[in-house]
């Protein structure tokens, strides 16, 4: 079994190397915006004359463009071509209605990475990374590099620099595991509740840092625009956000690794997370990072021979796990569930997790380690309790 594994190493470029990489960043941002403008102009023509430039057609024009601008020619050609490829992917997602229209890159908000996708043009030697036109960069190799390295990307994270390496690794085919099975109901008060009766506490890293963030952002607003003190204050805000992001990712990696090791099948509810973020709980949902949790869990379960199944989430918080009656009045509070029909009582999140497990078992589809099966339907119709009219109550 061949997998793609990512390695992220901290690098320490010299001031001269940093200055050159920053010049590349400005050049690549110019290239992105220019290619983006070309695509917008092609789409703005009359319908019969519209042009849809591709990454290959824009790469053919890259040679003349590099001759015209020497500072763009200083950037390796493969790095420039990769930017055009990423722009083309963004437009393809837009045409496929999988994302919004690509936007312009700003020097204040949109750092651009330098990606070399030809493995023969960069290398790791003696615990250091050698990048074309940059030279050898001091690197902290905190773990060995496995497999066959393919691409190397130099990224900026605030005032820190990293080399992200994608490598193809050959691992033994894991045995297919179908047990034990667990369903997880994701939430905010508790990050998750499992059908086994366990709770995953929600650390709420962003909420714990909001006061410090507010003070840091007030300091930024009080500083004179364009001053060095304002830049220092903005860096404090950036470091706080970076710390929260890293704490959250560490928590998600720990929880998903534990689930992948101990279970063969994990059942999740299928949620429209982007739509839910527009509600009053948007900040809390973003802090919990439900989508990234599912993303981490899927690839770790696939590597271990397990699988992740997504089932419909509709009325899972209002359905009784004992008798199957659906009634909004059964959900008494955030934590209390008491069925209005049979009197079954349980924690609301645990009851929802058991409903998800029941829906997965009734789907009748094989639980293959293919990631996500989003089209599952329950094989048994749920009994629905209504308040009016009376004849519907009698029918149930």
Radius of gyration from CA coordinates? 26 Å
Summarize the amount of helix as a percent range. 40-55%
Q: Low-confidence spans: pLDDT under 50, at least 5 residues?
A: 366-396
**Numbering strands along the chain, what is their spatial order in the largest sheet?**
2-6-7-1-5-4-3
Ends apart, CA distance between termini: 51 Å
Strand content: 15-25%
Total helices: the number is 12
Query: What sort of overall outline do the alpha carbons produce when their principal axes are compared?
Result: globular
Query: How many structural domains?
Result: 2
- Tell me about the largest β-sheet: 7 strands, antiparallel
From N to C, what is the helix and strand string?
EHHHHHEEEEEEEEEHHEHHHEEEEHEH
The overall pLDDT average reads 85
How many extended strands?
16
Q: Oligomeric state of the chains? A: single chain
- Class inferred from helices and paired strands: alpha+beta
